[in-house]
Structures are given as structure tokens and as C-alpha cells.
């Protein structure tokens, strides 16, 4: 069953950040896709390239599966390799018999799209801006037998405490935690990967974001043996290619984990730099950053966001529109974290883009298109601002949320 935008509450669940940098956006500086720049690293490309002479043989995933299991301290029966984390959402939707699936939004839209495509009626729990998009477990219906939530959550960059997520577990309920961005969190704090004491827990991981493997498709599921067996039966034969299996084994090696930890710490510093610069727009331009941000991206709310996004394209930058995420409207944008030099150039462009959008020259409304804005973007007065050192973060708002 194809997804229907009307049934989805008017949100285009199949729109993702890569749409911003296709076709006429291919030459833009990409702050729309949450894949780490300058990846894959040379050593990983060498490992993948070395596997190509064996393409005549059918893939054998045993070594990669064992390596992933060892990385998380689990038996292999609790691991399933998939063609990216997105495949896991399809498998869950097709293989599990559930009566009341619930997706906690705003979050990555593919879980709900996959459930709808499989014929399920999906309920939503919408976390609220005034609560910092933080989860109150009581907001999830007690009779929900499948609950899906991201941690850290795309697009809000909120990192939910592991203990809070564990409170969602119930006998007879499958709790799916999408940890696609957890390896971008220093120390992977609040991760549930490797836990076997949480009933019905399913953790999804992706190797796409940190290692730049979106085109290779590799991820994995960590779950109880029974759940893994059901999902595996729903997979086609040889679902993960030999190069992807080699990449999976390489990316969970001790060398790779050390490199990923270093990258996570660098992302945190670059994110603080970006957030500090964005805060400069708060008083005069009405921009608000969702804080504390813990992922490799930040979510901002600002007036005339659609016009700003189009003006940014004229200035050479792509950012992710937020209105396709349930729970958000057309005043939201998601911005990927990049190095400081790129962030400084982006902040200068944002300064100018907000002026041209305010003057009505920043393009049309939200829509589904990704075309550029209109006209020449004038310089803004006073000169564009650059961020200083990160200031103190505001206190977190109360943790309450409302069911959809």
C-alpha cells in the first residue's frame, strides 16, 4: 500500500535531506544531509575495494555478524545485518504482528511510512516544543504494542535518557529505539545497545552517517533471538552485499571505534560553535535553537523559514526543510553540523538570507520543490556576525508531552 499524504496529516513522509542536494542542488554546500563530511576514510575505501575481486561469490555475512555481536557484547543470535537501518523499518513493519503501533514524533519519518505501506494504522505521540521535545513515557498509550522512537532524535537532536526510554518497555510490547546517530554522541551515553534486560527492546544502528556509506547501505538490528529470527525470515536471500559486509566488519574494529569517538568529540565542538552563532540571531531575528542539541545536526525555528531556505540556496547552501516531520511546521529548518570554516560562511549567508526573506525576495512557500530563490541577495547591515565562545545553555523545560 503506497503512503498517502492526506492520511499522513499532510506530511510528505518520503521527503529526506538528500532531496535538497539533488539536481540543481548538487553544487551547493550541503548542510541538509547528516552524513559526516570527508568520508569514507581512505583506509575504509581500501578495505572495501579489496573485496571487489570476490564479487563472483555469494555474500557470507557470518564474520561481519560476529564482529558486530562482539562489539556490543552480544551473542550472534541477537544481531541481524541489514541493507541500512531503513530496511530494518520495513522488516519490522512486515514481519511483526502488531495491533496498535505508535511512532513518537518529530522523528525520522521512514518508520511510519513503512508501517503504513504494510497496511498498519499508525498512531502518533507528538512531543512539544514548549517541553523541549522531551519524552514523557506517560504520553504513550498503554495498549501500544509497538513503539518507535529515535535517540538522539532526528531532527530535534534531543538525547533522551536511557532510563526514560526503558520505562516504555512492557510485556507484549516491542520497543524500537533508532540509534542511527548514537555513534556521533561522545561515549554513546544513553545508548541501549547491548542491553538484554529491557523486555521487547529492538535497537537499530546505521553505519551510514559516521562513515559516509549512504550509497553502500549497511546497518544492523540488535534484538532478542526470536525477534531477529522473525525479521530474518522476512529478508530476501543475501540482503547485504559483500562490500557492505566488509565495511561492517571494518567499522566495528577497535581502530574504527577509536576514530569514531574522536569524530564524535570533534562534532560536539563544531556543534557548539554552530549553536553559539545561531544564538546571535535570537534577539533581533526571532530565531530559536532547540537545546541542548546532542546529535550531528540542530533544529531551528525562525520566521519565514521557507524564504530563508530558498535565499540560502541562492547563496550556495542547502539546509533541510522541517515541515515534512509530523509535529513541525513550515517555520522549522534542520542544519547539519560542519567544520568551523564552513559554519562561519553559513552564518554569514544566513544573516543575508534572513534579510532578503524579510524583504519578500526569498522564494515561495514550503512546498515540495528544492529550487533556488529569486533575485540577487543584497548585503546585510550591520555586517554579518560570527559566533563567539558558546554561552551557557538554558535550563531544560519541564518534561511533559501530549499524545496526538
TrEMBL record:
Highest taxon of the lineage: Bacteria
UniProt xrefs under Gene3D superfamilies: Aspartate Aminotransferase, domain 1, Type I PLP-dependent aspartate aminotransferase-like (Major domain)
Comp. bias regions, Pro residues: 379-397
UniProt EC number: 2.6.1.-
Top EC group: transferase
Reported cofactor(s): pyridoxal 5'-phosphate
Name by which UniProt lists this protein: Aminotransferase
Organism: Streptomyces triticiradicis
Organism classification: Bacteria, Bacillati, Actinomycetota, Actinomycetes, Kitasatosporales
Amino acid at each position: 500500500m503506497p503512503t498517502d499524504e492526506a492520511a499522513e496529516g499532510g506530511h510528505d513522509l518520503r521527503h529526506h535531506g538528500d532531496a535538497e542536494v539533488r539536481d540543481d542542488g548538487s553544487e551547493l554546500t550541503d548542510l541538509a544531509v547528516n552524513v559526516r563530511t570527508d568520508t569514507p576514510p581512505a583506509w575504509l575505501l581500501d578495505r572495501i575495494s579489496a573485496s571487489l575481486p570476490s564479487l563472483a561469490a555469494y555474500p557470507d555475512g557470518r564474520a561481519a555478524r560476529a564482529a558486530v555481536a562482539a562489539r556490543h557484547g552480544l551473542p550472534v543470535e541477537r544481531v541481524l545485518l541489514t541493507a541500512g537501518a531503513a530496511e530494518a523499518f520495513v522488516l519490522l513493519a512486515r514481519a511483526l504482528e502488531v495491533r496498535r503501533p505508535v511512532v513518537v514524533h518529530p522523528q525520522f519519518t521512514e518508520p511510519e511510512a513503512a508501517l503504513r505501506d504494510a497496511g498498519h494504522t499508525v498512531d502518533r505521540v507528538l512531543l512539544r516544543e514548549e517541553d523541549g521535545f522531551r519524552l514523557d513515557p506517560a504520553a504513550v498509550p498503554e495498549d501500544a504494542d509497538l513503539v518507535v522512537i529515535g535517540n538522539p532524535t532526528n531532527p530535534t537532536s534531543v538525547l533522551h535518557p536511557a532510563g526514560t526510554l526503558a520505562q516504555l518497555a512492557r510485556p507484549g510490547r516491542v520497543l524500537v529505539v533508532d540509534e542511527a546517530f548514537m555513534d556521533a554522541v561522545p561515549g554513546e551515553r544513553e545508548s541501549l545497545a547491548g542491553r538484554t534486560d529491557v523486555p521487547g527492546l529492538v535497537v537499530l544502528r546505521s553505519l551510514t552517517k559516521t562513515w559516509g556509506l549512504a550509497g553502500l547501505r549497511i546497518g544492523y538490528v540488535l534484538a532478542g533471538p526470536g525477534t531477529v529470527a522473525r525479521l530474518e525470515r522476512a529478508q530476501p536471500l543475501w540482503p547485504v552485499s559483500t562490500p557492505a559486509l566488509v565495511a561492517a566488519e571494518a567499522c566495528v574494529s577497535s581502530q574504527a571505534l577509536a576514530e569514531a569517538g574522536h569524530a564524535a568529540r570533534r562534532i560536539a565542538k563544531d556543534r557548539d560553535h554552530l549553536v553559539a552563532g545561531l544564538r546571535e540571531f535570537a534577539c533581533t531575528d526571532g530565531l530559536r535553537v532547540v537545546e541542548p542539541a546532542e546529535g550531528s545536526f540542530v533544529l531551528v525555528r525562525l520566521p519565514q523559514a521557507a524564504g530563508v531556505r530558498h535565499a540560502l540556496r541562492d547563496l550556495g547552501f542547502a539546509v533541510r526543510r522541517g515541515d515534512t516531520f509530523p509535529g513541525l511546521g513550515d517555520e522549522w529548518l534542520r542544519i547539519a553540523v560542519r567544520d568551523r570554516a564552513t559554519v562561519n560562511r553559513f552564518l554569514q549567508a544566513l544573516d543575508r538570507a534572513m534579510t532578503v526573506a524579510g524583504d519578500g525576495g526569498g522564494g515561495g512557500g514550503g512546498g515540495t520543490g528544492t529550487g533556488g530563490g529569486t533575485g540577487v541577495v543584497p548585503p546585510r547591515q550591520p555586517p554579518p556576525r560570527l559566533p563567539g565562545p558558546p554561552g551557557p545553555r538554558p535550563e531544560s523545560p519541564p518534561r511533559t508531552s501530549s499524545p496526538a
